[in-house]
Amino acid sequence: MKRLKLALLGGNVSDSESPAIHTFILSALGYACDYECVSVPAEGVPAAAERLLQKTDGFNVTVPYKKTIIPYLDSLSGEAAAFDSVNTVAKMKGYNTDGAGFLQMLAAAGIVVKGKRVLVLGAGGSGRSSAAALLDAGARVWLYQRRKELLKEVCRALGADEADDPESGGYDILVNCTGVGMHDSVGRSPVRASAFEGCSAAVDLIYSPAESEFLRLAKVAGKRTLNGRAMLFYQAYFSDCIYLERKADAAEADLLCGRYLKA
């Protein structure tokens, strides 16, 4: 059985679920892996990137280094270039599987986005990749970001609309791509209850806690809710397919995800 040497690079990834997920997926596909979590401050990125590029078969990247890693790579895939964000590195090339993982999660949950009005909160790496994936899937997307210059820049690049007031209601689906609701902001929501008026579903990329304040407010309002834990699995599956140079299969991904989440 071939053994892969993989890693996750981030600011603080000591409690990440990624080692368990990648080990599960690769084992199911007939491979073993050693998966290292590498937490470094910003000044430690150059040395960490050099070591990981030389000593691993590939590695994942998470906040806050999805853009920081780009100068260390030879090239980017179409998605990584479009999102200006990398979450997977293999053979000196950067990839982004966040958008694919996000859409797979929605599809598996039966949430249809084609033709729907979707509000994406946050225009960082996760917001950009989610918005771009939604646009590609046929949704009409509004983005909200407090930093107006960033909002205009991202909307112009993606072809999304700017949302002036995220709490005005009237959207079919709301997606939280901010970090509000986790770590030091547990118990807080990026929007108030009025934001959920008229919507059918609320999706939060946060999965710890399992029910963020954003999702709690949506649930109280009678909306369908979905956290991002399955997305974490799906983007890992697509990353592993890149490492293995193997064609991804949606049905296989759903089967493995179901098994993992029930374990």
Please give a structural write-up.
It is built from 9 helices and 12 strands. Helix 5 (125-136) links the parallel strand 7 and strand 8. Helix 4 (98-108) crosses helix 5 (125-136) and helix 8 (229-243) packs across helix 9 (250-262). It is globular, with a radius of gyration of 18 Å. Helix content is 37%, strand content 20%. The protein has a 6-stranded mixed β-sheet, sandwiched between helices. It has a 6-stranded parallel β-sheet with strand order 9-8-7-10-11-12, with helices on both faces. With 263 residues, the protein is of the alpha/beta class. The two termini are 23 Å apart.
Describe what is shown at a glance.
This protein has 263 residues and is α/β, with parallel strands linked by helices. Helix content is 37%, strand content 20%.
